[in-house]
Amino acid sequence: MAQILAPSAQWQMRLPKGSIEASSFTPKMWKPLVLKQNKKGAIRSSAKFRVFALQSSDGTINRVEQLLNLDVTPYTDKIIAEYIWIGGTGIDVRSKSRTISKPVEHPSELPKWNYDGSSTGQAPGEDSEVILYPQAIFKDPFRGGNNILVICDTYTPAGEPIPTNKRARAAEIFSHTKVVSEVPWFGIEQEYTLLQTNVKWPLGWPVGGYPGPQGPYYCGAGADKSFGRDISDAHYKACLYAGINISGTNGEVMPGQWEFQVGPSVGIEAGDHIWCARYLLERITEQAGVVLTLDPKPIEGDWNGAGCHTNYSTKSMREDGGFEVIKKAIHNLSLRHKEHISAYGEGNERRLTGKHETASIDSFSWGVANRGCSIRVGRETEKNGKGYLEDRRPASNMDPYVVTGLLAETTILWEP
Questions:
Q1: Model confidence over 264-309: pLDDT tens digits?
Q2: Of 132, 236, 366, 405, which is most buried by a Cβ count within 10 Å?
Q3: Is the pLDDT of residue 35 over 70?
Q4: Which GO BP terms apply (predicted)?
Q5: Domains delineated in the chain
Q6: Which residue has the higher pLDDT, 82 or 43?
């Protein structure tokens, strides 16, 4: 007996007639599929999965769906905590589960844990233990109940941050007195691309071919323009349930590409929320049978890349006379352009070409309402004389701890 998690029709890859994949499924094989539906629309748990179960020869049906939806709250005080951390590439998310004796409200109530760093590229085999420090808690939309997701950072047994732990340095910056007093706000626009599983080609694109040119896809609607809306919507709701400060979502310029926005978030919270949102997206695409990529230029040629535009302001920028503070901040950013670019994501040179709504990676520029600049200032900010700036340089695979920390450091702490 086997069981299949069934995505919506939009998540299923359309295969050309006569292909090996298509011919391997026959009407006879699909006949035993039975859809298990909730009786009378009742919802017993906040986490629900639609499961197709294959019926075996003796007529029994796989009951995995019932266990997935099982609410254990009436029977035990214990909860499941999913410890999440960033792996050795600096962009991969890892996680594992443990039982906690009772519900918790703050990360300090959770125990530290460890994992095999030699298996994630973060420690040698002869000294492989890496320690997880719980730092932020979110509700678990997959398990529901009192179960939680725990964002952690990583340390040696001696208590030193390991090299891939970028949160520790960001936390130092955001705890500085001058930075705290400026109450830095961030609004991060995370772009991502959905790929078909076996061919690693964008969702909705003909295998080995191309759709029509860009134009109708951005914020578009329709089966020939919007590919992956179910995933975007599922992710949106999962973020709201988890307590992530998600503020919106939209289809992007390249078909199969989407964006969600998180913020405004203060200080280190911005990085925690983006990383948790990325984890949720990985889990949802896993269930949908779709591959998520944060590559800044997934398809070469006349197609938009994927960025992670970062909107930023300080208390001084948001108050009267703030536009002058913004100009000073932009001046500082221009002087540290190379340092920022080197920390803004792997492969960003393939995206920042001066085309497709980007500035050249080799030069710094800024302008009002100009999406071809390194830094964009909105019309409202210019008109009101206060507001925020948008750093359009970060790639989709940037580390939000690095980018937010560097912006605060360069504009508040660093003096040319």
A1: 999 999 999 999 999 999 999 999 999 999 999 999 999 999 999 9
A2: 405
A3: no
A4: glutamine biosynthetic process
A5: 3-68 (no CATH), 79-165 (3.10.20.70), 175-413 (3.30.590.10)
A6: 82
Contact yes or no for 2/56 (Cβ under 8 A): no
What is the distance between the alpha carbons of residues 151 and 374, in angstroms, rounded to a whole number?
Answer: 31
Angle at Cα 61 formed by Cα 71 and Cα 96, nearest 5°? 45
Average pLDDT over residues 43-61: 53
Dump the DSSP string for 54-115.
EB-TTS-B--HHHHHT---TTT-S-EEEEEEEE-TTSS-EEEEEEEESS--SSGGGSPPEEE
The continuous run of DSSP H or E covering 315 comes out as helix 315-318
Average pLDDT over residues 65-87: 93
Amino acid at position 204, single letter: G
pLDDT per residue as tens digits for the range 78-89: 999 999 999 999
Residue 371: CB partners within 8 Å, gap ≥ 6? Answer: 357, 392
Asked if residues 297 and 306 have their Cβ atoms less than 8 Å apart, the reply is: yes
Report the distance separating Cα 35 and Cα 12, nearest Å: 17
| Residue where the block lists tokens 């998690």 | 5
Q: What are phi and psi of 3, to 5 degrees?
A: -135, 145
